[in-house]
Amino acid sequence: MKKYFIQKSPFVVPTNDGKLIEEHHGIPTTNNPAISIAHMIAPPHWKEPFQTPEFEEYTYVISGKKQFIIEGETVVLEAGQSIKIEKNTRVQYSNPFEESCEYIAICTPAFDFMKVHREEE
Q1: Does some domain include residue 77?
Q2: Are 116 and 42 in contact (CB under 8 A)?
């Protein structure tokens, strides 16, 4: 038995906001509740509602810029920068800019819709 797994078919999460989410590792792809790793592309002017997830989230920006509102503070990351947001932190993710933002997101434990706690808009 091999001691590695190459992900060739990530799960494409259905969205209705134009955002591409390709989950490579996590609950829907590898049935791993400990971690999720996703490649994402957020289109210009995209945003999510505020949320208070029960997991840590790490983001690494590949290209473009991504905005975070973290406990009321606005932070903008550019290509080559990364951030760790602690679990149980109120945050909003967005791309209010004119170009797409490509990034990698890692959640520990894995992203779970039942544990993200998105607010009503």
Answers
A1: yes
A2: no
